[in-house]
Amino acid sequence: MILSEKKNDGLKIGQFFFSLIAFLLMLISAASCFAGGLIFSPSWSISAAQKGLLLSLGSLCILLAAIHCTAMVNVFREPKKQTSPVLIRKTSFLSASIALLCWMIVLCLVYFQVTEKFFTSIQPYLTPLAISIPIWWLVEFGKRNLPPVTSRKQSAALSFGASYGVLFIMFLELSVVLFMVAGFLIFANAQAGSQQWMKSINPAHIDTQFLEHYLTAIVQNPWFIAALFSVVGIIAPFLEESLKPAALWVLRKRSLTPVQGFILGLYFGGAFALVENAGMVIQFGAEGWVENILLRASTALLHIACSGLVGWGYARSMQPGKNRAFWKPLLSAFFLHGIWNSLALLFSAPDLMALSYGTRFSPKIWETIILIAIILEWGLVFFLLWKMNRKLKKETSSEPHRNDKGGVFMNEVE
């Protein structure tokens, strides 16, 4: 009992420490972005697009700081005894649904340029909120009517997933890309023609036209195309799906149930989607803002559903005699993610061809087929999220959720 309490205290202290570091870094980043966008922009001759980018990043950092602050506050907070958890879960989903409805109305107003000046002025501050609302709804949709998970675990999953988890995944993906680039350069350097070209390069005067021609030749190379599809369709999906909910293994000795693993997996996926989607939308700025928000909301479903599936598999494998139970959910999530990325890459192939050959010669019917395939997979992933919720609800409906003494819900005990 004493050893268990020490492990519990160590886990709490570790969570508080890591969330505190992330919180301070986000506050510093937010202050820097707002200072650059609001105070120093006149003296630095910052353009309107650059100013909007800085303000959007600052707003995102404020949102992430709030997530980390919530995780710190929940570390030492005792779980509350809920008299009606069903009512609370319904209220939470209802709140997310109302927020999603308001989100749709705002996007319509922005798209049809109603009160354009007003929305243009607040758009940088609105971007993180517009990204997070569909993520919130998808998480609530996935965990509706399931036994509750403590707020401490939920906030910890959001805090870790939106900071150290996403940074570690990005580091691994970047390392793979750099490794492949280094291998290609070594291979190119071994070729006689490439050696002569590289020796003839003068850093003080680079022929941009010849460099563009050389890069075009690289893009047209079948090995480059194979490497691109390998990274986007195989390596990145496997790294992301296996690592997003990997922090669940810290709880392997704490009787983590499959339902808890699924719900926490949803939060890990939502945290990853928040950071990734924000980075994608912010870099495009005001151009096509509504379209980018909707596009990233669709990818948020993929991250959330697949992470929930993998989290469920990880939690199942922690049970006695089921050490390999995570492989099937992990491979399923990897397959869905890989197909999605590959279809998205194929859909953008005409743009790649335009860069390589100066013209788009992909048949329109081919683009339509790929778009239909993407929509069908989106529907399949949404059905999977709904099906997992129904499956877990059925499994837990006959299980008692209160103990015999205090009426405390079992999933609320740390």
Quick take:
Helices cover 79% and strands 0% of the residues. The protein has 414 residues and is mainly α.
Describe this structure in words.
The protein has helices at 2-39, 41-44, 48-75, 85-111, 116-143, 151-189, 192-199, 208-220, 222-243, 258-284, 289-317, 327-347, 349-357, 364-397. The chain is an all-alpha fold and 414 residues long. The chain folds into 2 domains: 1-77; 91-399, no CATH class. Helix 6 (151-189) packs antiparallel against helix 9 and helix 6 (151-189) packs across helix 10 (258-284). It is globular. The relative contact order is 0.10. Mean pLDDT is 84; it is low at 1-5 and 401-414.
List key phrases describing it:
single chain; 414 residues; mainly alpha; 2 domains; 0% strand; disordered N terminus; disordered C terminus
